[in-house]
Specification:
Blueprint: H1 2-44
């Protein structure tokens, strides 16, 4: 009797984990599909995005050289 309960528990756990893996696979596939669709939609638009300019690299650190006394 005890072994039957253990077998049922193991089968239930295996079924649960298999379903979770299937769900994870579907969500990963859906994420890739959404990303691809977004890329296609962005390629069809006529929006021009200006190039980003780099900021000056010579910036002073906040409060550098000043001591609090």
């Amino acid at each position: 009797m005890h072994s039957d309960l253990m077998l049922d528990a193991v089968r239930a756990e295996a079924a649960y984990r298999a379903e979770e893996l299937r769900k994870a696979g579907r969500s990963a596939w859906a994420a890739r599909a959404r990303r691809a669709a977004r890329h296609v939609r962005a390629a069809r638009t006529d929006v021009v995005v200006p190039a980003q300019e780099r900021r000056e690299t010579a910036r002073e650190a906040a409060g550098a050289g000043k001591t609090a006394r």
